[in-house]
Specification:
It is built from one helix and five strands. With 106 residues, the protein is of the alpha+beta class. It has two domains: 31 residues; 69 residues, Translation factors (Elongation Factor Tu (Ef-tu), domain 3), CATH 2.40.30.10. The strands form two sheets. It has a three-stranded antiparallel sheet with strand order 1-2-5, with no helix packed on it. A two-stranded antiparallel sheet has the order 3-4. A hairpin with an 8-residue loop joins strand 3 and strand 4. The termini are far apart. The mean pLDDT is 85.
């Protein structure tokens, strides 16, 4: 009996995993996002306080950015000058989605 239940659980898990992967693919295709990410530029920098600066980031390809909810995170990968290493950091998204760019605090 347990083997039959286990096989049902495995089957359902595979269905849900496959559906979730399809949803991600559809969202990425709709926004023109590739698996490797997109190149962005800082289009605006604003000093919010002595300790906080906000940055508006715009894709180089000028295609739409994904919708999000304020407070969601975006992963940003950078490589400092004179460094062979790439660094990934998570930043909280600010404002409401506008389809054009993202705004973060640092």
């Amino acid at each position: 009996m347990w083997n039959r239940k286990k096989s049902y659980y495995i089957f359902l898990a595979q269905v849900f995993i496959g559906r979730e992967a399809q949803l991600y693919r559809n969202a990425k295709e709709a926004a023109g996002v590739s698996e490797g990410g997109r190149e962005i530029v800082i289009s605006k920098k604003k000093v919010e306080s002595k300790l906080v600066t906000s940055f508006v980031m715009t894709p180089v390809d000028a295609k739409a950015v994904l919708d999000f909810l304020p407070g969601q995170y975006i992963g940003i990968e950078t490589q400092l000058e004179n460094s062979e290493y790439r660094e990934k950091r998570q930043h909280s998204l600010l404002d409401k989605p506008n389809g054009i760019n993202y705004r973060i605090l640092d």
